[in-house]
Structure formats: C-alpha cells, structure tokens
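Page 47, continued from p. 46.
Same chain as before, 325 aa.
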Amino acid sequence: MTEIPYIAAIEMAIHGEMERDDSVLYFGQNIATSENDKFLQAFGPDRVRVTPISETAEIGMAVGAALAGFRPVVELYMAEFMLVAMDQVVNEAPRFRYMTGGQVKVPLVLKAGYGFTAGWSGQHTGTIYGMFMGVPGLRVAIPSTAADAKGLMATAIRDDNPVAYFHHYLLTLEPGEVPDGEHLVPFGQAAVRREGGDVTIVALGYMVGLAMNAAERLAGEGVQAEVIDPRTLNPLDLKTILESVEKTGHLVLVDQATRHGSASAVIAADVADEGFSSLKAPIKQVTALDSTIPYSQPMEEYILPSEDKIVGAVQQVLGQAPVTA
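Result:
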C-alpha cells in the first residue's frame, strides 16, 4: 500500500493499463501539449495525443477508435463538456453493442470531473451523473477514495462497454492508501464504509466523506449509522442497500446533485418499491437545492449538502430532531 493523492491514483491506473495493453489510448485537449508530458514520453504520440478544442470531435474519435478495437480514455476535465457531445455519449457509444447482438464492442472511458464548487459558479460546478444513470449500456462510476479511484479506472478501461467515470474536483489532492500493483474494483459492488444498526446513509462521491464525518458526530449522540458507498450507479448494487435498510429501518440519501436531477431520487424510488416494508420512517434525501450554483460562497453553502444537514436528516428520520420555536 502507498499513500498518494486521489488524482495520482487515477493516473497510476491509466499508466498501468497502458503498460499492460497496447490497445489503450489516452487523449484530450490538454494531453501531450509538450514533449515533457510523462504519458507521451512513456507511450509515444501514436497512443497519447492532444485533441482539438471540440468535445464532439474527441468523443467521436473515441467511439470510432473503440469500434476499431482500441480502448481510448478521453480526458474531459469537466463533466459539463460531455453535454456538447450528448449524441455520441448517449445515443451512439452505448447502443452499438446491443444493436449488433454483441458482435461490436465499444470499450471507452470518458473521464470527467464534477462538483467543482468553491467559487466556480454556474457552468462548471454541476453534479450531472444522474442524467447518465438510466442510459442502457453506459456504465457510470463514481469513486470516493484514492483506492477506488485506481481500482474503478482500471476496471473501466477493461470493460467492453463505454464508461462515464466521474471524479470530484474537491477530492483531487485528497491522499489515501492505494494498493500497489494491479488493483481492480468490480462494478456493481457497493462498499460499506461504516457499519451501524440505527440508520442507513447512502452517499455518493465526495459526499461519502461528509457522511462519514456526520456518522462520527452521530455516534457521540448514541446513534450508529451505517454508511454505504455505491461506487457505481450503473450497475447499481441495490441489494446491499436493501439489506442495510432491512437491518436499520431508516434511510438517508446524500447526493450533491439537485433534488430532481439526482441519483438519490432513483435510489429512493427503488427502495420504496422493493423495500417499503423495511422502512420505519419516510426516506430523507439530502441533496443540493434545485438551483444553479451561485458564485457567492454563503449562497453556495446554503444550496449544497453539508455535515450539519446530514446530521439533521438522520435526527428527523429517527424522530430526534429538536423542536423549533
């Protein structure tokens, strides 16, 4: 095990897969812009390339390369850039394998940062993975730790389907213990980050850390929260969530996305559909408000989830919320 930053773990996975498999390519608008680029030095200009400033072009290139037998990784930097190329992301890459009866594979990874708050205002701060969650054939991965950042990226590159790989910007320099050598995290297998019997907290990406901190605070009040990190949204490990809710009887969902564009809304519906008899109280969602993220820090904090909001939601579902005047 080695302690490295979250972003270094992602790069380690890409580098390792490129060493292992000559068909893995890496390109993007800020990739290989100088001869000192470490990926360019290691793998050469045939496999590592800078692209035009056109998301439609670079994602279209990736789809074509994947159809031709390569495994491209596209560095998109910000998830919102995917919106420029939604036809390729939603209507082309995920459909070909099904439409050809499995004869054609489209193994590509769209690496996209999300949730860049802290004063970045409206157009680069979105948490938009929810809109991709229901696209058949498109995998969706959201690592919350450095170890998972490495393991999910390696798995994504090896998958024969297109993968939208969302990494949170506020985790970029967050250090963590990462396994040395080959490390794969299977898709569709949630991680139980903390065990508890009183309430289930399901959190996504950067929200996992907030949920863990909230759980520590709640433990001081005698409340044992179980914290679950789905790690992937497609496939979604609903079984682990339902088993936890059956044990605790209470569910709080934490998602930085806006309420009506969130993955948490889908998970809440699934639990209500398949695990309603286990619930002892209504499901509570802690999400961003249905608003564009403002530039003002106090307004930003008002809109986004926080530890205090998670603690308050748990107190509500347990009937322990303080009475207000």
